[in-house]
Amino acid sequence: MKLLWEWMKSRLALAEIWNALFSRHVPEAEGLVGWLYTLGSASLFVFFIQVITGSLLAMNYVPSPDHAYDSIRFINEQVIFGKWIRALHHWGATFMVVVVSLHMLRVYFMGSYKYPREATWIVGVILFLLVMGFSFTGYLLPWDQKSYWATMVGANIASQTPAIGSYIAKILKGGDEMGAVTLTRFYAIHTLVLPGLILVAILIHLFLVVWHGISEPPQKNKGSDKKAGA
Amino acid sequence: MEEKDLNNKISRRSFLTYVIVSLGGLMGAILTGLGGGYFLSPIWRKKEDSWIDLGLVKDFTEGEPLKINFTVRKRDAWSTIESKSSAWIITANQKDFIAFDPKCTHLGCPYRWSVEKRQFLCPCHTATFSVDGEVVSGPPPRALDRYPTKVVGGHLLILPQVVGKGKEV
Fold first, then answer.
1. N or C: which end of chain B has fewer CB within 10 A?
2. What contacts 24+ positions apart, CB below 8 Å, involve A173-182?
3. CB–CB of B150/B157 below 8 Å?
4. Number of structural domains chain B divides into
5. What pLDDT does residue A174 have?
6. Pick from A49, A52, A81: which is nearest to B37 by CB?
7. Same domain membership, residue B31 and residue B97
8. Are B83 and B117 in contact, with CB atoms under 8 Å apart?
9. Number of independent structural domains in chain A
10. Residues lower than pLDDT 50 in chain A
11. B74 and B149 part of one domain
C-alpha cells in the first residue's frame, strides 16, 4: 500500500501538485477583506454541489411536457431525500449566481483583473455567462407555470434583437412555438453542452489563478497605488 | 495569557487545519448521506400491490363461473399505465372466492365456460378444465393459474398477478 502510494506520488507528481495548489503564497488579508478572498472557492464548492445534485436529479427527471412536472413531483414525494436533493440544487443555483456576482465585484473593485491577470478575468466573464446560461435553461425544466412563462419572456426579449431577433428566438425555442422541443433543447444544453464548456473554462480559470498567484488587496500609499500617485 | 498560549501544544495552523477538515468532513458526510440515500432509494421502495375492486360479493351467483373484465392501473414511478384484463370468478358461498387467470396454461389462449358440460373449454387445442381448474383432458401441463382474492367490506378484491403456477393461493 505504502509502495503504491510512493509510486503514485513519484509518477503523478502528487507532492508537487499539492504544493502548487495548497502551499502557494497568498496575500495577507484579514477581516472582511480576508473573507472576500473566499468567494472564488465558494463558487467552486457550489459548482460541485450542483454537479452532484444535478446528476442525481437527472436519474429521475424526464424532459417531456407529459412527464416533466410529474417526474419532479415523484422526486419530491417518493424518492428518499428527493426533496432535499432538489432543494439543494434549487438553492445552489441561486447561491451560484449570488456568489459568482460577488466574486466578480470583488475582483473588479480590487483591480485584480489588471496586468498580468487579464486572461483570468476574461475566462471569468465567460464563466459568468455560462452560469447565466445554466440559470436560464435550468429554470424551464420544472415545466410549471412560472418556468414556462419566464422562458417565454426570455425568448421574447431575445426576439427584440434587431434584424436577427426572430431567428434567435426560434433557435432558443426550437421552433415557432414553445413546447416539447424547447424542453428537450434546454435539458440537453443544461446537462450536456454547458457542463462540458464550464468544466474546461473552470480548469483554465483555476490554472491561471494558480499560475499568476492571487493579487494583493489594494492599499493606500503602498505598491502600485503609490507609484500611480507619484 | 502569553504564557498559556506558549504552553498550548496546538498551533494556530494545525487548529485551523482541524477545523477545516472536520467542517469539510461534516459537509461531505451530509452530502454523501443525502446523495447516497437518494441513489440507493430503489432498495427501500415498497412494491405497490394494486388490488382491483370487482364489486359487491353478493352480486356473484353461487356455483356459476363468471368472467369479469376490469382495468388494471399499474403505477410506474410517476406514470400510471392502464391495461384491460379479465378473470374468471367462482364462489360456492359468496365468502370464499377463486379467481382464475383467463389464459389456458397450455399456450395462453382465452378459454370459455360451457354451461352444458360444466367445464372450461379452450378452443385452441380442445383442452378442458373442471370447475376447480384441474385439467380434465388435453395438453395443458397444469391446472388453471389463480389470482389472490380477498373480501374487504363486502367487496371482492383480486390481485391480477399469478402467484405460484396452478397452485392454491
1. N
2. A178/A148, A178/A151, A178/A152, A179/A65, A180/A64, A180/A65, A182/A140, A182/A151
3. yes
4. 2
5. 94
6. A81
7. no
8. no
9. 1
10. 225-226, 228-230
11. yes
Question: ipTM beyond 0.85?
Answer: no
Nearest Cβ partner for B78 among A52, A67, A88: A67
User: Which of A76, A81, A84, A91 is best to mutate for the B interface (most B CBs within 10 A)?
Assistant: A81
| Domain assignment present for B169 | no
B81 touches chain A (CB under 8 A): no
Domain-embedded: residue A6 = no
What pLDDT is stored for residue B48 in this prediction? 74
Nearest alpha-carbon partner for B51 in B139, B137, B161, B127: B161
Q: Which residue do the cell numbers 378459454 mark?
A: B111
d(CA B49, CA B69): 19
CATH number at residue B104: 2.102.10.10
The whole-angstrom distance between A214's CA and the closest CA on chain B is: 20
Quick check: is A63 in a domain? yes
B40 & B60 share domain: no
Q: Does A51 touch chain B (CB under 8 A)?
A: no
pLDDT reading at B169 higher than 70: no
Contact status of A71 with chain B (Cβ, < 8 Å): yes
* Residues B37 and B117 reside in one and the same domain: no
Å between B151 CA and nearest CA of chain A: 29
Q: What is the mean pLDDT of chain B?
A: 85
* B66 and B102 part of one domain: yes
